[in-house]
User: What shape does this take?
Amino acid sequence: MLAHLLGLLTSFVGPLVLYLAKKDESPYVRDQAAEALNFQLTVLIAYVVSWVLAFVLIGFVLMFFLWIGSIIMTIIAAVAANRGERYRYPMNIRFIS
Assistant: This one.
């Protein structure tokens, strides 16, 4: 749960630190930290693309929906992780498995 919520505050840095610190302690924590890290990296790439598209004005709209969507999906993931469920983000690029 912490890995998912840290993403809201620290982007990919919090999940990365948690992944590196706890990956050998629990397969579940490793899995969820990797999932949160992958999601935050995917969101970062989407923000960069939206920023580039902001020059043609559509990027601002995309950034807004990306921001709202990432908050909603992160909260859903945190609740699922709190219940002990393995959560998979939709549309997530798997950089770390």
About this structure: The CA atoms of residues 12 and 41 lie 6 Å apart. The chain has a mean pLDDT of 92.
